[in-house]
Design goal:
The protein is α/β, with parallel strands linked by helices. It has 5 helices and 7 strands; from the N terminus they run ββαβαβαβαβαβ.
């Protein structure tokens, strides 16, 4: 289980608007109390994290990161985040949907992700997966 401090937001980074909405809904249905902050690409997310590094924004409790994004892949985002000292331990979970799931999973861990999850085909399956993976902590 990955502990998620309840007082802070969960960041969702995905270039697909429908996937962002689904992930937000799935998070709500798990019953975990964290609000969600969504980003449409890795560049915008990293700009936000630069603000968090200077205390202009709050660091998220968890990052749910799509692997297949234009301009900057999820792997690139994890590497860039890990290069920023304040975020070396921030839990980043890479969401994988490609046919190369094994290779992508290995690359995600190598890049510094805490874990990887396969994107599910249905909301119920996603809720069950999140419920098994995440727990709220103080």
């Amino acid at each position: 289980m990955i502990g998620v401090p309840r007082a802070r937001a969960v960041a969702i980074v995905d270039d697909n608007a429908a996937d962002r909405m689904i992930l937000e809904e799935v998070w709500k249905r798990t019953g975990l109390p964290n609000p969600v902050t969504a980003f449409e690409d890795g560049t915008k997310f990293l700009a936000f994290m630069d603000r968090a590094a200077s205390a202009e924004a709050e660091t998220p409790a968890l990052v749910l990161l799509d692997v297949n994004m234009p301009r900057m892949s999820g792997f690139d985002v994890v590497r860039a985040l890990r290069a920023r000292d304040p975020f070396a331990e921030l839990p980043v979970v890479v969401l994988i949907s490609s046919s190369d799931a094994r290779e992508d999973a290995a690359r995600a861990i190598e890049a510094g992700a805490a874990a990887f999850l396969a994107k599910q085909t249905g909301v119920r399956e996603f809720v069950a997966l999140f419920s098994r993976t995440f727990e709220s902590i103080d």
